[in-house]
Inverse folding.
């Protein structure tokens, strides 16, 4: 099970996913981490938004504040990506390895 530990806090990615699913703009979400030399880990959140919702700077700020109310500010994702559908396994679970692959590709492109 993947976790990250900003300072002395330790959270599982699924805890952040469960929190984000409570936000009115989000239908589904997947969060993964990629190791980073300077920050320890970069967190990537892949979001499926409600119909008609547009991801912009104000929604990003709203999501960051929403997360910061429950978790440490260090738990806020470093990157948000909007997807139409999250990859799933045959059993319907989130395909984290695919999300991790996408995150690594995004880091390499930067």
């Amino acid at each position: 099970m993947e976790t990250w530990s900003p300072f002395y806090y330790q959270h599982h990615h699924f805890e952040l996913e469960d929190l984000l699913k409570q936000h009115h703009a989000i239908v589904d979400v997947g969060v993964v981490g990629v190791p980073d030399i300077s920050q320890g880990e970069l967190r990537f959140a892949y979001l499926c938004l409600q119909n008609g919702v547009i991801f912009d700077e104000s929604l990003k700020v709203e999501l960051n504040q929403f997360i910061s109310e429950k978790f440490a500010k260090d738990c806020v994702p470093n990157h948000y990506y909007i997807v139409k559908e999250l990859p799933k396994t045959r059993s319907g679970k989130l395909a984290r390895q695919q999300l991790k692959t996408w995150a690594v590709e995004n880091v390499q492109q930067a």
Q: What stands out?
A: The two ends are 27 Å apart (CA to CA). The longest helix spans residues 96-109. The mean pLDDT is 88.
